[in-house]
């Protein structure tokens, strides 16, 4: 008996591009924050059958909420979840904010006006890099969430 092959990935090729299109349109006033499926198709760059498949998957997974017609077909998108906002970049993730902090430290070290300032920013950038991405993401998670441990 042969093991069935896994299904083809649809997240990166279909679902995520459609989610990004929906997120952009929901955040844009011209669509009244509730874009029609017909607006998502060109915004995603995918054919309508792919957008319909992705939309159904995204609704089922809880990433988006949609209005349907009497036949149960998705007509309009009304909202996206917080997780969808993070996945599409509308909201920060601990990892992206840590990367931004590292970029800023490097940029400030490079653009410093004096040797002393350059040395301080370089030391900060080196220390932040030494902390590593895992601990850095934990720190940024605490900062994004508004929790900063108090000094003892």
Quick summary of this structure?
By secondary structure, the protein is mainly α. The protein is 60% helix and 8% strand.
Task: Name its key features.
152 residues; mainly alpha; two-stranded antiparallel sheet; elongated
SSE arrangement:
Blueprint: H1 11-26, H2 37-44, H3 48-61, E1 64-68, E2 74-80, H4 82-88, H5 94-110, H6 115-131, H7 133-144
Antiparallel strand pairs: 1-2
Helix pairs in contact: 1-2, 1-3, 1-4, 5-6, 5-7
Report on the architecture of this protein.
The protein is mainly alpha-helical and 152 residues long. The protein has two domains: 11-88, Arc Repressor Mutant, subunit A (Orthogonal Bundle); 94-144. Helix content is 60%, strand content 8%. It contains seven helices and two strands. Strands 1-2 form a two-stranded antiparallel ribbon. The longest helix is centred in the C-terminal third of the chain and has 17 residues, at 94-110.
- SSE class: mainly alpha
Let me know the CATH homologous superfamily of the largest domain. Winged helix-like DNA-binding domain superfamily/Winged helix DNA-binding domain
Task: Detail the poorly predicted runs.
Answer: none
SS summary, helix count: 7
Determine the strand fraction and express it as a percent band: 5-15%
């Amino acid at each position: 008996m042969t093991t069935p092959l896994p299904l083809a990935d649809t997240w990166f090729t279909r679902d995520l591009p459609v989610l990004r299109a929906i997120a952009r349109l929901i955040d844009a006033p011209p669509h009244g924050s509730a874009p029609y499926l017909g607006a998502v198709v060109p915004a995603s760059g995918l054919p309508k059958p792919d957008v319909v498949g992705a939309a159904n998957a995204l609704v089922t997974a809880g990433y988006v909420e949609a209005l349907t017609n009497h036949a149960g077909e998705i007509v309009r998108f009304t909202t996206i979840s917080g997780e969808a906002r993070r996945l599409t970049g509308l909201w920060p993730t601990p990892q992206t904010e840590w990367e931004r902090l590292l970029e800023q430290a490097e940029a400030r070290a490079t653009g410093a006006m004096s040797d002393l300032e350059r040395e301080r920013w370089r030391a900060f950038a080196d220390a932040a890099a030494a902390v590593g991405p895992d601990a850095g993401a934990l720190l940024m998670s605490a900062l994004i969430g508004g929790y900063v441990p108090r000094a003892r």
